[in-house]
From TrEMBL:
Listed cofactors: Zn(2+)
EC class of the enzyme, as a word: transferase
Keyword Transferase: yes
Domain Cobalamin-independent methionine synthase MetE C-terminal/archaeal residues, every copy: 441-763
Pathways per UniProt: Amino-acid biosynthesis; L-methionine biosynthesis via de novo pathway; L-methionine from L-homocysteine (MetE route): step 1/1
Keywords annotated in UniProt: Amino-acid biosynthesis, Metal-binding, Methionine biosynthesis, Methyltransferase, Repeat, Transferase, Zinc
Protein name, as recorded: 5-methyltetrahydropteroyltriglutamate--homocysteine methyltransferase
Residues at which L-methionine binds: 446-448, 499, 614
Catalyzed chemical reaction(s): 5-methyltetrahydropteroyltri-L-glutamate + L-homocysteine = tetrahydropteroyltri-L-glutamate + L-methionine
Keyword Ubl conjugation: no
Example GO BP: methylation
Binding site for L-homocysteine: 446-448, 499, 614
């Protein structure tokens, strides 16, 4: 049966695109600039070439409108802070002296000035720089970047659509600036911010912009009536401007809910909505609201956050329904393609059959164009593409990799007892203190040490055959000995082996588990110039053999101090992978948990008394709507306990979390039943310690005193001051001293100095404690 063509030709578009380039040219240029090897002009030239290449690729694929303004040297929220003049006082001199250096100072800090806080962008692994605002904040428009990039694309013959973070989302993502009352609500600044947005919109209109996209993903979260009223007021005012560009308000990552009616009534010209699984409900809600008469609808029917091919027939059915709900329907991905790698065709080492199931940014662009053509011209126009898509989907459904009967039988046999330690924490902690003999305020690190050029060269030499396995292992042993020697001399109490053999905290394990696939070029931005290659979770998971035992046992043989075994937890293994979409996440998490349980038990059997199972993604993966929290947290905490509960009482289980808001999951942190948790706290000034105390968290905790995402070296006094804040919330007998996160991205000179200062701070605070406490 042939679908009827749309009354007006549907067009293809995207909200945003990966920034880095095929070979991460942007990362290399920026880091070269930081090191003084690349000039500012050369950096700008690289950026312009990348933008030009992106727009050209999109246009050649058949995309009608190309996004502009989504490109960033570091972060698009930071770009918005610059656009509205929200530069913290401590960074203003640097920005005045040199705009580019000042921008990077806000992102990374300097030795004298702390950076902006960094946290996760909704429920993704992308990090944004948190705006700092207060009642005295004065906004001022600076549309230079947005206008310049629009004009670039226009001059190249494209139809550009500038993309801005919307004013409501910007304020809802912001925090009270240091020194401002904690209960200050940035949204109270909306009336002060809207004229600045109006000025930016006027500048874009003067430059020739027909449409401007305002992203409001914060509206897919639970919102109060006051917040919904603020959104209504914002778009009443911006929509009511005279001589403006047409406004497209975009939401993504979920269902708009009550905010849909607010935006549908607003005097804006179009809405962009998520119609994939994450946005389930938007279709019914749109119909219930009476559709969008007189407005444009951009339908996000291609999943912008995962890498599996689209189901064309399912998407076309959704698009066909939407034709009756808006004057004009265009086709897009569910969100910016920033969250997926660039090109699946670059993956030469993946089985060709499996490669047919994958769609990265370029392939998703092609899917969007095919769907737009099918919607506009009927399914006969895309008959060949539909047939190939059906065959690829059937190939995946029938593939042997997706189902392992042994794994499924083991998960089916799980009992409640498998997820419970043999003794409660109050009894375990006594056994652990006797066994480990640690001082008050014990010092440790999170796991990784700097990944030096020599280590990367060794891995490259092994892959290229320039050294054999034995030669590579000697290099790894040398690095472990150096890392341990430094830690002992520095006075650290619980050591790590530094993870020199590991490429990434998820990829390293994925490469050793069945059911996972690794990419060679699947880079995705995590923050700034930090890119990761999320593995592809394609089938059932098991552990053929031990993954970390050998190197951990070797490290322990070199020292009398305890060496932590280091693993990545089941939730993070899912969150930082491209997870399979053909079964519930909880089922996949149990499979990973059982594989990790085997590893934890083997570590203990080989003499490891402290085992850290990191779950930095526990908060990140929390659903955006409160109604969905309980079901998620149930399987998430269960999977952690399943991985860790099989050890003796005197084996100490640690976990680690970083760069997220933890206040609303403290009960879940408690439910993990870990003996020690370490968390990011330096940039947020020990906020998490106060949140733990407010909950009555009964276990040991290490809120970080060293921000490892900045090159600056914290002084002993600075670390001691943070520890004193920590002691206001957590008693000395339960407080650990550690950095915020792993040290992989830092250099050795700053690492040495920072950790020596951290240990000195711990000693200073110990000396201040009452004699009976010590």
């Amino acid at each position: 049966m042939t679908a009827k063509p749309a009354a007006a030709a549907a067009r293809a578009t995207v909200y945003g695109y990966p920034r880095q380039g095929q070979n991460r040219e942007l990362k290399k240029a920026i880091e070269g600039y930081w090191k003084g090897r690349v000039t500012a002009d050369a950096l700008r030239q690289t950026a312009a070439e990348l933008r030009r290449g992106t727009w050209q690729q999109l246009a050649e694929a058949g995309v009608h409108e190309v996004p502009t303004g989504d490109f960033s040297y570091y972060d698009h929220v930071l770009d918005t802070s610059v656009m509205v003049g929200a530069v913290p006082e401590r960074h203003r001199d640097a920005v005045r002296a040199d705009a580019l250096d000042g921008y990077f100072a806000m992102a990374r800090g300097t030795q004298d000035v702390a950076p902006l806080e960094m946290t996760k962008w909704f429920d993704t692994n992308y990090h944004y720089l948190v705006p700092e605002l207060g009642p005295d904040t004065v906004f001022a428009a600076d549309s230079a970047k947005q206008v310049a990039e629009f004009k670039e694309a226009l001059a190249l013959g494209h139809t550009p659509r500038p993309v801005l973070v919307g004013p409501v989302t910007y304020l809802l993502l912001a925090k009270a600036a240091p020194g401002v009352a904690a209960d200050f609500e940035p949204l109270t600044l909306l009336d002060r911010l809207l004229p600045v947005y109006a000025e930016v919109l006027a500048d874009l209109r003067a430059a020739g912009a027909e449409w401007v996209q305002l992203d409001e993903p914060a509206l897919v979260q639970d919102r109060t009536p006051a917040e919904l009223n603020a959104a209504a007021r914002a778009y009443r005012d911006l929509g009511g401007l005279t001589d403006r560009s047409k406004l497209l308000v975009a939401s993504y990552f979920g269902r708009l809910g009550e905010a849909l009616a607010v935006l549908a009534k607003a005097p804006v010209d179009g809405l962009a909505l998520d119609f994939t699984e994450t946005g389930a409900g938007n279709l019914d809600d749109l119909a219930a609201a009476g559709g969008l008469p007189g407005k444009r609808l951009v339908a996000g029917v291609v999943n912008g956050r995962n890498i599996w091919i689209n189901d064309y027939e399912k998407s076309l059915a959704t698009l066909g329904t939407l034709l009756g709900l808006a004057d004009h329907v265009d086709v897009s991905a569910s969100c910016s393609l920033l969250h997926v790698p660039l090109d699946a065709k670059a993956e030469r080492d993946i089985d060709p059959q499996i490669a047919r199931w994958l769609a990265f940014a370029r392939q998703k662009t092609e899917e969007i164009v095919v769907l737009a053509r099918g919607l506009a011209s009927g399914t006969d126009a895309i008959a060949a593409e539909l047939a190939a898509n059906r065959a690829d989907l059937a190939s995946r459904a029938d593939a042997a990799i997706t189902r392992d009967p042994g794994v499924r039988a083991r998960t089916a046999a799980i009992t409640d007892a498998d997820g419970r330690r043999s003794q409660p924490y109050a009894e375990r902690t006594l056994a652990q203190r006797a066994h480990l003999g640690l001082p008050l305020l014990p010092t440790t690190t999170i796991g990784s040490f700097p990944q030096t050029t020599e280590l990367r060269t060794a891995r490259a030499d092994l892959r290229a055959g320039r050294i054999n396995e034995a030669g590579y292992e000697e290099r790894i042993k040398d690095e472990i000995r150096e890392v341990l020697s430094f830690q002992e001399k520095a006075g650290i109490d619980v050591l790590v082996h530094g993870e020199p053999e590991r490429n990434d905290m998820v990829q390293y394990f994925a490469e050793q588990l069945t059911g996972y696939l690794a990419t060679q070029h699947g880079w995705v931005q995590s923050y700034g110039t930090r890119y990761v290659r999320p593995p592809v979770l394609a089938g059932d998971i098991s552990r053929p053999e031990p993954m970390t035992v050998r190197w951990t046992a070797y490290a322990q043989s070199l020292t009398d101090r305890p060496v932590k075994g280091m693993l990545t937890g089941p939730v993070t293994m899912l969150a930082w992978s491209f997870v399979r979409d053909d079964q519930p996440l909880g089922e996949t998490a149990r499979q990973v948990a059982l594989a990790l349980r085997d590893e934890v038990n083997d570590l203990e059997a080989n003499g490891t008394s402290v085992i850290q199972v990191d779950e930095p993604a526990l908060r990140e993966t929390l659903p955006l709507r409160a109604a969905d929290h309980a079901a998620y947290l149930e399987w998430a905490t269960e999977s952690f306990r399943l991985a860790t509960a099989g050890v003796r009482p005197d084996t100490q289980i640690h976990t680690h979390m970083c760069y997220a808001e933890f206040g609303d999951i403290v009960q879940a942190i408690d439910d993990l039943d870990a003996d020690v948790i370490s968390l990011e706290a330096a940039r947020s000034h020990m906020q998490v310690a106060r949140e733990l105390a407010g909950h009555g968290y009964p276990r040991e905790a290490g809120p970080g005193v060293y921000d490892i995402h900045s090159p600056r070296i914290p002084s002993t006094e600075e670390a001691a001051a943070l520890l004193r804040k920590g002691l206001e919330a957590i008693p000395a007998e339960r407080l650990w001293v550690n950095p915020d996160c792993g040290l992989k991205t830092r250099g050795w000179p700053e690492t040495r100095a920072s950790l020596e200062n951290l240990v000195a701070a711990a000693r200073e605070i110990r000396a201040e404690l009452p004699t009976e406490a010590v």
